[in-house]
Amino acid sequence: MNYKLLSGILLASSLLLAACGQAEDTAKDVSKKIEGAADTAGDKAKKTADEVTNETATTEEPAKEDDGSNELKDKTAVLDDIDVKVLETELMPKGSYEGQIADQLVITYEVKNKTDKEIDPLSGFLAAFEAYQEDENSMRKLDVGMSPLNDKYKFALENQSNIIKKEGIVKNAIAYDLKDLKTPVELKASKGIGGEKLGTLTVELKK
Asked: Are 141 and 132 in contact (CB under 8 A)?
């Protein structure tokens, strides 16, 4: 047997196995370094996203919902289909005209129809405004009362059911029965019942 040849083969095998082991260890080290770098990059990205989110949450204030308590601009409720403008108000204590059964606040207003829809002045006002008097525990909604039976407001009986033409403006009046003669009346405007709140007109009850 050639012992020198056998020894050479064994030595070559040992060297080959050692080289493979080193290569495997190197590959594992490289893999760990890549995984570590990826984890580090991921952590940095997450941290940056969190910082941006927190900064946005800190600098951006949440939108405040309008509660309708602001003064109504130009005494006009601007809706999609109509504009309703309050022209004047008058306190009429009980007995101011024949047949009057309650103290009243009479509101003279005008309605502009911006569409081809059939809209009358009374329906237009009621779509835009509600009237209240406040007490200690609640906002008391006022009922619509009888239109004053006198010459000054005769036009209201004639106009309240007329259909307003597109771009037409019609004047009318409405009376609310009061809960008392001291508490101011708040006319709350909105874009229809339950719609966007537009503002409030406060009417002091003065004769």
From this structure: yes
